[in-house]
Amino acid sequence: MFYTILKRFFLKKRVAKKLQKQQPPLEQQKISTIGVLVDEAYFSQASTLVKEIMNHGFKEEQIQVLVFREKNKPKEIIKEPFLTPKNISITGEISKPQVIAFLDTPFDMLINYYDVSKFSLMILSIRSKADFKVGFDAIDKRVNHLIIKGEVEKYKEYIAELFKYLKILNKI
């Protein structure tokens, strides 16, 4: 318990420091690859979210998903790559190779599909090499470049709104 409190404290400091260095996107390029970061505690239908994105003209191989889980059930089989708080050290370093590969992939857009501020998720969003980041309005405004107001459960409305703004911004 003490370790968890201490870990949250240090992750919070790490996130605050990285957010101060955050730069706005410089290039106006079209979106061809999408990364999706999902908090399974509040939205467990990552595959339906991917299908909704595919309905807007993207192919499945253009979309990668990373799922954040609070706890891992040992016998449960998960299709998407995932991580738990145990995979993140007290200094914010990631120990899982799949997650490191996801964060190092230079996506054209990262969708941060979570609306509860968790420093573990925020550190992942900040460390991502994505050019353009999109998320909910309940998260720190410095994490995302485009903020859309909505509810996690209403994913169809959120994706429709996102693609409406991407057309306005000439990103698709």
From TrEMBL:
<dbReference type="Pfam" id="PF21857">
    <property type="entry name" value="DUF6913"/>
</dbReference>
<protein>
    <submittedName>
        <fullName>DUF6913 domain-containing protein</fullName>
    </submittedName>
</protein>
<dbReference type="InterPro" id="IPR054207">
    <property type="entry name" value="DUF6913"/>
</dbReference>
